[in-house]
Amino acid sequence: MATLIEQCRALRGGLEQAHLANQTRHEISAFQERLREWEQLISSRQGLIEKMRFVDPTIRGELQIVETSAAAKALTKEARARLEAGGDVESLSVENLWARLRSATDAANSVVIDHVRKIWKAYIDTLGRVESPNTLENRILKTPTNEQLLIQYRAAHISYQTVIRHELPVNEDSRRVVFDHVEALRKIHSQMDTSAPDSVRRFLKAVESDGAALELVTPEVIKWLAENDDQNRFVVRLKVANTWR
Predict the structure, then answer these.
(1) Which residues contact 53 (CB under 8 A, 6 or more apart)?
(2) Cα–chain center distance at 114
(3) Strand (E) positions, 135-190?
(4) Contact 71, 108 (CB under 8 A)
(5) What is the pLDDT of residues 22-81, one digit of tens each?
(6) Cα 187 to Cα 9, 16, 44, 184, distances in angstroms
(7) What DSSP state is assigned to residue 195?
(8) Which of 43, 96, 178, 242 has minimal Cβ neighbours within 10 Å of its Cβ?
């Protein structure tokens, strides 16, 4: 049984034959308009067939896809029969055949888009939640290493967002590309230090604000800084400048 896309191509041939039989300006204009519309529908269908293959080739057998495709194919066959029987392009307007054909084809394509979109989203969801850079920034400790990693994370996250902003896969490599981006983000995330003793968190938070009092510089803090931070970036200064000479 001919597929919808094959019927579409056959109808295109019928349109071209009808063009040869009609040479008036009005008929030529009508032919060009119908042919342009049909080329767009064929192109859309071909693109969607590819996207079905990208996510899951078996969805072509889904009942809703089969039924809507069959409805569009039947109308395509009817339009082709009219042209082969000697009808001109205007004959496709009888009983609104052309309008019904376009509507049925659009409906068939919309059903495919919905199925592909759901499968694509489900795949992205299986890769797990990706934390936004701003959320991550609020959780991590403000150390030089973390700050550098956060810069890398932001850049990688932009690339990731660029890929997933498409509701449908772009090409057959889309699955691998998304997976690789998620893995890259996880790798950067895993190198960040998000855990530390409360004393260290209090100290670093105070430093970010207006400076930490000496009482916050405990042995535990000093030990943690020596192992996980750059101690040389901290200095001791008087809170109020001396006025005596």
Answers:
(1) 172
(2) 14
(3) none
(4) yes
(5) 455 666 677 778 888 888 888 898 999 999 999 999 999 999 999 999 999 999 889 888
(6) 49, 57, 38, 5
(7) -
(8) 242
HEC readout, 34-100: HHHHHHHHHHHHHHHHHHHHHHCHHHHHCHHHHHHHHHHHHHHHHHHHHHHCCCCHHHHHHHHHHHH
Report the pLDDT value the prediction gives residue 244, as an integer from 0 to 100. Answer: 42
Q: What is the pLDDT of residue 201?
A: 67
The closest alpha carbon to 112, from 238, 4, 237, 198, belongs to 4
For residue 195 the two structure tokens come to 């855990």
The span from the CA of 240 to the CA of 120, in Å, is 60
Q: How far apart are CA 104 and CA 33, in angstroms?
A: 18
Amino acid letter, residue 189:
H
Q: Which helix (H) or strand (E) holds 10?
A: helix 4-21
